[in-house]
Amino acid sequence: MNSPCSGCKKAIKPSERITCTQSSCGKRYHYLCVNLNVDNFKKQKNWKCPDCSIKYLSIIRKEGNSDDTPIKLATCSEFLDDSQNITIRRQKESEPTTEHQDCVSRAELAEIIRRELRSVIRDTLNEEFANIEKEIHAFEETIKFINSQYDAISTKVKVLSDDTKIFSTTNVMLTGKVRDLEERLSQMEQSAR
């Protein structure tokens, strides 16, 4: 398991970790927590953490260094390559660095989860509504087809009904004629006797 940053106490990605090379120390930091930029971070081979640098400088001071400049962690020359002559100012503790903005509060995490859930629910509902619309459209098409079939059958039934009436009328008329002919035939037979 990775140990947390000795500065901000948050987890350190291996690509952002710098470790104190002092044999008795071994503390780990985010390179941004000790005010190193990416270039200087990549160039560091023998790097001392702020605590070890202070100890080192206090030993030098005790041995006769007359420099009364207060030690500033961010501007300590041990943090920089000898070829660099750059003063790095320490950022305010409350301002998050741009490379550590992946740390979010619980409220922000809850809001992100809420947004994601809304998005997933909205997408799922949209898919379901689209499927329902397709099914309704298919149902409407089926009903239209059934209605057209019903209309065609109704038309055929009406035609057949009309034909039946005509046949019935014709049948009554022909039955009457047959009776008349039978009566005439019967009369002709009686007169012929």
UniProtKB/TrEMBL annotation:
Positions of the PHD-type domain: 2-55
Coiled-coil ranges per UniProt: 122-191
Keyword Zinc listed: yes
InterPro entries: NSD_PHD, Zinc_finger_PHD-type_CS, Znf_FYVE_PHD, Znf_PHD, Znf_PHD-finger, Znf_RING/FYVE/PHD
Entries under PROSITE patterns matching the protein: ZF_PHD_1 (PS01359), ZF_PHD_2 (PS50016)
Keywords annotated in UniProt: Coiled coil, Metal-binding, Zinc, Zinc-finger
MF-aspect GO terms: zinc ion binding
UniProt organism field: Parnassius mnemosyne (clouded apollo)
Lineage of the species this protein comes from: Eukaryota, Metazoa, Ecdysozoa, Arthropoda, Hexapoda
Name recorded for this polypeptide: PHD-type domain-containing protein
